[in-house]
Specification:
Number of helices: 18
Number of domains: 4
Strand content: 15-25%
Distance between the termini: 69 Å
CATH topology of the largest domain: Alpha-Beta Plaits
Strand order of the largest sheet: 1-5-4-3-2
Radius of gyration: 35 Å
CATH class of the largest domain: Alpha Beta
CATH architecture of the largest domain: 2-Layer Sandwich
């Protein structure tokens, strides 16, 4: 109900003392009566407040009373004429000063009669809206069952109310709608939605955000309906918000169906093994993990939403491994921007994401290892969301990017005889070589760490040099053997 609906009822005889057409378009949510000098405890936002002006003794009283009503956010003040025979000028001036619409109720019309009329009209309107909403939902459900897209329903309702509307994820990824808000606007929208205790919520820039489904629960992977101001000016009407809230219930059902299809696709992918080659052509590898109470399937859904066209799987450690088209730098920026929108809802949990370089079938495993190492390094960063891009700034980083077949051939050529000697004799040559290199070539430190005699270390290293044809006294040969050892480690892991 609007203020104008009350004024237009002739038999009530209510007149407007202050307020233009825009003011009379204010919605009225309820009616209440008070003559307390401080009315704030007895009224609420959106109320039409009836008062006999018993509280008035001076112009100061009028100013304070009206100021308090305006501060609460009431729709208007309806003053009775019975006490003074008219509405005093200082009451009118106070309403003008505080921009509060002022109505006058004739002295022969009791407040109870007006409130009774309003209650009946509101109840009737409520029933009409409920019936209209149920009819709309039945039509939408039938349309979805017939294969209509949510985009079409969203666009149709947006045109009906003259607003712009979008369906987005909690990370700001567009699910439905066109001409989405820019990234800065999406930052504000998701921040408002993530921090609110109640929907709908207003975001700066004239956006109204409604939840889809559970609302306050599961905000890491929830969806939001976002409404833009009609024609770029004016607020979105309450009727419009109510209609889109009804649509949100239908969208929630459609999302369940989408999630079931995606889960079925994951099962097919997972049965071929982590990132089975049949699903991978070329792209960038992303590895994501979380601590705290973030469920694996939720993290997988978030990563899939942010990356878009990506093949995902879960490795033995519960990490999400994905291959997505694009360039590693662009993928890294996208992950940082979109995942950062989840910070307000992570609470005590943290996300760690590593981005590897480009990969093909030949070097997929190496790219996965590179991204996994970057995700592990991200744990050293501060913040709730840490994204690291793998950099080829070391020999080990370069080694990880090589195809497995090439690294296997390299390791076999340099250390194959040593590995075979250890297998036959259990001489521990590989362990001694690894410890010797880790101790920077110090014979004494190597002996101490292995708990063997110094001469034993010299003998074993001599055998390694004889079997490999390399001298551990030369820097280049040390590097060759070090990389061969790391190749063995990575191939075994």
């Amino acid at each position: 109900m609007l203020l104008s609906d009350v004024v237009d009822v002739r038999e009530l005889g209510i007149r407007v003392l202050h307020g233009d057409a825009e003011a009379l378009a204010r919605p009225v949510l309820r009616a209440c009566t008070t003559d307390m000098p401080d009315p704030t405890r007895y009224v609420s936002a959106g109320s039409l407040v009836f008062s006999g002006l018993v509280w008035r003794r001076s112009a100061e009283d009028s100013d304070l009373f009206v100021k308090r009503l305006a501060g609460v956010g009431v729709s208007a003040l309806a003053a009775g004429e019975a006490l003074y025979g008219r509405v005093p000028e200082d009451v009118i001036e106070a309403c003008v000063r505080h921009r509060l619409p002022l109505l006058v109720v004739p002295d022969d019309v009791p407040f109870s009669r007006v409130i009774e009329y309003m209650t009946g009209a509101m109840a009737s309107a409520r029933v009409d809206r409920l019936q209209t909403g149920l009819a709309r939902q039945r039509q939408w459900l039938a349309a979805v069952a017939d294969g209509r897209r949510i985009d079409d329903l969203l666009e149709g309702l947006a045109q009906q109310f003259g607003v712009r509307a979008w369906l987005t994820t909690a990370t700001g990824v567009l699910v439905a709608g066109s001409s989405a808000p820019d990234e800065d606007a999406l930052d504000r929208i998701t921040a408002a939605a993530a921090s609110t205790a109640r929907f709908p919520v207003e975001a700066s820039g004239g956006y109204t955000v409604l939840s889809v489904g559970s609302g306050l629960g599961g905000r890491l992977d929830c969806w939001y309906l976002v409404l833009g101001r009609a024609g770029e000016t004016g607020a979105v009407s309450a009727e419009c918000v109510e209609a889109f809230d009804e649509l949100a219930a239908v969208v929630a059902l459609d999302r369940v169906r989408r999630d079931e299809r995606r889960s079925a696709g994951w099962e097919i992918t997972d049965r071929t093994g982590p990132l089975g080659r049949a699903h991978v052509d070329a792209g960038v590898v992303v590895v994501a993990e979380a601590d705290g109470d973030v469920a694996t399937d939720v993290l997988r859904a978030v990563v899939a939403d942010v990356l878009g066209e990506a093949v995902t799987s879960v490795d033995a450690e519960g990490r999400i491994v994905a291959v997505t088209p694009g360039e590693d730098a662009e993928i890294t920026d996208r992950l940082r921007r979109r995942l950062s929108r989840l910070r307000p809802v992570l609470r005590r949990s943290r996300l760690f994401v590593g981005v590897g370089g480009g990969c093909t079938d030949d070097n997929l495993e190496g790219a996965v290892r590179s991204a996994t190492a970057a995700a592990a390094a991200a744990r050293n960063d501060r913040g709730a969301v840490c994204v690291r891009r793998a950099e080829l700034d070391s020999a080990i980083g370069l080694l990880a990017a090589l195809p497995d077949e090439l690294r296997r051939s390299y390791a076999d050529r340099l250390l194959g005889d040593v590995v075979e000697h250890d297998r036959r004799t259990e001489a521990g040559l590989i362990t001694t070589l690894e410890t010797f290199l880790d101790c920077d070539g110090s014979w004494r430190r190597t002996a101490d760490r292995l708990h063997v005699h110094l001469n034993t270390v010299r003998y074993r290293i001599g055998r390694v040099e004889a079997l490999t044809g390399r001298s551990l006294g030369r820097t280049g040969d040390r590097l060759d053997l070090y990389l061969a050892l790391r190749s063995l480690d990575r191939l075994a892991s």
